[in-house]
Structure formats: structure tokens, C-alpha cells
Amino acid sequence: MIRGALALLSGMQLLLRRSELRAILWRMLALLLVLMVVLASATFWLVDYITALWIPAGDAWYWQVLSWLAGLLAFVLAMICGIVSFVTLGSAVSAPWLDDLAARTEALSGKQVAAQSSGWMQLILQSLANSIRPLFGLLMWGGAALLFFWLPPLATAIWTYGAVRFLSYELIDPTASRRSWGFNMRKQQLLDRRWFYLGFAGLAMLLLMVPLLNLLVIPAAVVGHSQYLSLKDG
Question: Of 162, 154, 161, 141, whose CA–CA distance to 69 is shortest?
């Protein structure tokens, strides 16, 4: 897990240090910022809605404690929904830039993969298509969480784990697509290096909860994963 987390941090460091990578980052930031603001507004509405469902009624001595716990868990649950939406949509709308970012990172590592011939719209649609099966998997975890909805700690833990698994698929999409990895190949890679990708996606989820820093996570993940694969292949 530590190696996965370090790979993400290394990607963020390289992204900010190299001018050829920063040049692509600046083109993406405005679009990602608008998307983040819209989804953040929806997330805070969802926090209020879930909190209202979970907060118990009564005036017993433990009511304040349960109310605080319900509010905290509702915030985490809603934040995860916002993160999943942001990464899915952000990766899709910025797919052409992410592909270019991966290509430049590979060039810096000396292990460049053959360039994709797809146009901008094709890359966007490809990114959305690659999200479908992982989203179905996430929905299954969401269904499991709903079964325990009235046990907030357990529901939140199930949904969090499902979201980390989803991010493991989503954040490697640009580099996996450049290597023509189908879904089964991606699944096998994630199984073979389970702890690496849990650390990679787990840290990404935490950073996605930090305002402004979350704008760097998607491009940093692409740089970090491209760098990791180039070094591993070398």
C-alpha cells in the first residue's frame, strides 16, 4: 500500500516540477474547477438529506453523540458520492489531455507507448465506456451498503471500500487504454498488485477530499501510474 501511495505522490511531484507536464495541467484546471464547484454543491445538499434520515429523534443524554456521529458519517458518504462523480466525469471530459499527459510522462521515462490515433471525441467516449463495468461493480457495493443503511458505520465502510475499488479502475484508465488493456486485463493487474492499487486509490480518495488539491489528483494519478509502469517495464 505504501508503494502505491508513494507512486501517486511521485506523480504529483513530477507533474508540478516539469514544465512540459504543467503546460497540460493549466489547460485542464478551469474545466475541472467548474466541475468540482457544481458537484460540491450537490454533495452538500446530499449531506443534509442523509443527515436528516440518520439523526435520531429524542432528548436522551446520548442524542448529541449519535447526532454528531450520524452527521460525520453522512458527510463521508456524500463526499464519496461526489468523488466518484468528479473522477468519472473529470476523467472523461479531460481524456485527450490525460492521454497527452501520459505520453509526455512516458517520453520522460524513456518507455513511450505507441500513440493513439483516436480523436478528441473518441477519447472522451472511450473513457466513458471504460467506466461502465467498474460503475456496475460500484453499484453492487452500493446495494450492499443500502442493506445496512440503518447501521451507518457499516454502510459507510462498505461504500468506502467499493469506491476505492472503483477509483483503482478509473485512475489507471488513460495509461491502460494506451496499452490496449481490456477490462479483464485491468482486473488481473489490479488483482496481481492488489495492495499497490489500494494504496494508490486510497490516498487519491483522501486527497480528493481536500479543496483545490483535489484538482491535481486526476492528472497526478495519470503521471504517477505512467511513471510506475514505465519503470516496471524497464
Answer: 154
